[in-house]
Design a protein that fits this description.
heterodimer; A: 179 residues; mainly alpha; 9 helices; globular; B: 280 residues; alpha+beta; 4-stranded antiparallel beta sheet; 3 helices; 25% strand
Chain lengths: 179, 280
Amino acid sequence: MDPAASFEGYVRARTAALSRIAYLLTADQHLAEDLVQQTFLRVVPRWARVVAAGDPDAYVRRVLYHQHISQWRRTGRRRDLPVDRAESPAPDHSDDVAAAVSVQRALARLAPRQRAVLVLRYFEDLSEADTAAVLGIRVGTVKSPARVGLARLRALAPELAPFRPGADPAPRRARTEAS
Amino acid sequence: MTEADLVAALDRIAGRARPARLPDDLWARGRRRHRRRLAIGASVAAVVVALVVLVAGPALPGPFGHRAVAPADRDPAVPSEVGRPWPWQPTVAEAPPGPAAVLVDGIGPFAEFTPTSHDQRSLAVGVNGAYRVIRNDDGELLLSPDGRYVASRSTMEETPDWDHFGTSILDLNTGRVRTFGEMSPVAWSPDGRTLLARITSAGNRLVLLDTTTGAVRPLFDLVGRVPEDFAAFSPDGRSRSDCNAAWPVRAHGGTTAPSPCGSWTGVTRRVTPPPATPGG
């Protein structure tokens, strides 16, 4: 298939999913859009090889996470990201919404790699090894951001208290396998 | 809040994301951006080379703001300190330093300053005290025991194929890069000829890459959460031992090799878990 056509097909199929990840990472609709677009632009030159390697999604997601961390570095290391006003719990005070808002605000105050690790582990449901593969770091390097990120989440959002500091985060798959 | 609540909260947050609005000519824009970045990278490299040659010579010793580095006289030595390089420090491709005593990578202002087509910069300090920049796209590099080669899971310096998606090995003697298949370097053998690597595209497999021939020899599939970053060659280079509380294994030449924390059986090529009880 023509690489351009293949790429455009991929973009159509995966934009929504990648936008969700980008939004979790940036906490802002506009930043998320920019992150997704920059990711696709970076992938274009390597698209033919990425497709030939067999798993373009893994590569694109890896670029997205790296791009997220790079953007944070280049924009002056803002540790606190703006959280969309639309996320305000004003119209709905249910526990679920309140928890989501707390988590989003806490996430926005984490370092980008910590945030990325938590999103990969708890949203994308990846193992530590797969998380390390996406971020291009060693498995041992995943443990620290995950542990510190959870500890900070717990400190920033007291309702996260049941997470024990130092405990290895277990994603959905791990819980499913254990049950 | 439980883990399930956290997962639900993330799902709820993500559900509010709207699909990114993208331009119709995304592919053409990507191609134009790529050509532009290559041109900028070539221009910057040319300027750096000109500055180095005209102003300071091809081998600037010493870090910015620090005293010059004195090369070791006889015995191999590691610098007592590594300073921040000059902004115009040559790259390995521009002026190969020879074997390195120290490789500095990771994050930091130096590593993140990337005006060219690469995402990261690392620093090689030659055994002769020369500082050289290694432009790369990964940030986690492995230096061979003899200091001559640097391995990365992505592109470095003037990788022949910019689109390469796999392991690269940079020769610090020549500045040239050789590329191999898609795998993540784990550890160098003591002689610097073999690279223990992990392939994740087909499960999670440990392999040996002969860097002289490019031959890849599968070892075994990793089962469970094996901390492969703890893997290392023994000093004699004949075994690779991994020992970690999570899932330790020991590989020894294709035969069963008992270890205090687990074993690898060459016949079945399966990683077996550690005994349930100490000494069991």
